[in-house]
Backbone:
């Protein structure tokens, strides 16, 4: 059983307060939607939870069976899909997936790569350079990369950005599957995406 | 699910292989470093002609060419990750030590290739004496390791700055001045064909410098990389 806790989190950029007093506790099977107007700090909160921004106050905790996870365990158990996270344009889709699987500590088989590409609707396009993909295809490939390690913590920032209707359906399927077996945190402004989560955190109020 | 767990060496090799693959497809860093090195060497050699410069001056010119060529391209290994927005994906997935080692080996490969091309041209253009060639090669290898060990960490530090190129040279210079002095001294002796006992002190200094820089970089890199 994994747990993600936020204890009285606050963030300031200089004099400007972005958010304060954010607190929640999520266990495996829980999901949280972070919503709020532009500039309310949704992406900042995601980056703060992932440890890439420092909280001005408060703490974030990643636990498994009430034992805190080490940095390397957190890395191997978390995945992010976001518009500001890019894959390598000069590698093929398959090369990207193989690379990220290896550096995250695993070894992925060609069969698994094919399965993931098929899951996100990129079957037959794995041998193409990512630079030749459309923005929607790149977003789909980010989902394939995020699911390589079957993460216990899945963070999605603007999860359906650049996706067509079929892509949005694929994302809905992925979230439906992972909200049962992982902790899913979604940052979004889309009303229909709020239904991805069982709890809602509203920023900027 | 991953079939088996990869160790630090496999992860570092994956980063190295990825950078080599990207470089073979874009040729950005190698072309930059080669153009800079060959152009500088050509200007120096045409200006001096076959004027029989003292070995000490030839050694200094040689390391000036290598130093500035390195400054022109070694930082690209991190700048490219930041500019293409791939640094975040790498930070989220990879062990910082694996990233540092992978990038270090990439820079070592790049600078070794450059010195492999520049060195014969240097001897041809400047008519420098070969002296003790094996000793010269030993100094060259230690120089490449020392330069890359120090500059790879600096490259990570400056990759988010606005004036990357200038900052890279400015920050690298103070930490490279000591090994450059030792390299020039050792190269001067090697070109003169001096015995190993004469050159032992700078060689020991260069080995110690490389070990200290790479160890310190491994310890500090995770803090630089996460910020």
Residues:
């Amino acid at each position: 059983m994994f747990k993600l806790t936020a204890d009285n989190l606050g963030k300031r950029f200089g004099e400007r307060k972005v958010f304060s007093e954010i607190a929640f506790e999520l266990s495996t099977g829980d999901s949280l939607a972070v919503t709020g107007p532009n500039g309310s700090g949704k992406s900042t909160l995601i980056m703060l939870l992932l440890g890439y921004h420092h909280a001005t106050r408060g703490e974030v905790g990643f636990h498994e069976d009430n034992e805190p996870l080490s940095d390397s365990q957190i890395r191997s158990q978390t995945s992010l899909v976001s518009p500001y996270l890019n894959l390598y344009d000069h590698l093929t889709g398959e090369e990207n997936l193989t690379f990220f699987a290896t550096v995250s500590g695993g070894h992925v088989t060609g069969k698994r790569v094919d399965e993931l590409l098929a899951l996100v609707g990129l079957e037959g396009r794995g041998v193409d350079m990512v630079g030749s993909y459309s923005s929607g295809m790149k977003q789909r490939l980010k989902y394939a990369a995020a699911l390589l390690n079957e993460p216990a913590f899945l963070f999605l920032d603007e999860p359906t950005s650049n996706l067509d209707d079929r892509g949005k359906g694929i994302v809905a399927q992925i979230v439906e599957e992972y909200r049962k077996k992982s902790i899913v945190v979604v940052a979004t402004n889309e009303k229909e995406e709020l239904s991805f989560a069982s709890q809602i955190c509203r920023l900027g109020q | 699910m991953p079939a088996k767990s990869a160790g630090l060496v496999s992860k570092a090799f994956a980063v190295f292989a990825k950078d080599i693959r990207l470089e073979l497809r874009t040729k950005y860093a190698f072309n930059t470093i080669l153009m800079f090195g060959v152009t500088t060497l050509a200007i120096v050699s045409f200006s001096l002609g076959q004027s029989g410069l003292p070995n000490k001056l030839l050694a200094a010119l040689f390391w000036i060419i290598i130093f500035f060529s390195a400054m022109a391209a070694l930082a690209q290994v991190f700048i490219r990750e930041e500019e293409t927005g791939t640094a975040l994906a790498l930070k989220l997935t990879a062990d910082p030590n694996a990233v540092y080692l992978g990038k270090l080996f990439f820079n070592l490969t790049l600078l070794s290739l450059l010195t492999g091309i520049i060195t014969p041209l240097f001897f041809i253009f400047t008519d420098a004496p070969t002296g003790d060639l094996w000793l010269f090669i030993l100094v060259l290898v230690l120089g490449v390791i020392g330069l890359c060990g120090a500059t790879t960490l600096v490259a990570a530090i400056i990759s988010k700055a606005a004036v990357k190129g200038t900052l890279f040279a400015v920050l690298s210079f103070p930490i490279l001045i000591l090994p450059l002095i030792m390299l020039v001294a050792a190269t001067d002796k090697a070109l003169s064909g001096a015995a190993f006992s004469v050159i032992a002190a700078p060689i020991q200094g260069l080995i110690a410098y490389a070990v200290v820089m790479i160890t310190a970089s491994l310890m500090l890199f995770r803090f630089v990389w996460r910020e």
User: Anything to note?
Assistant: Chain B has one domain: 8-226.
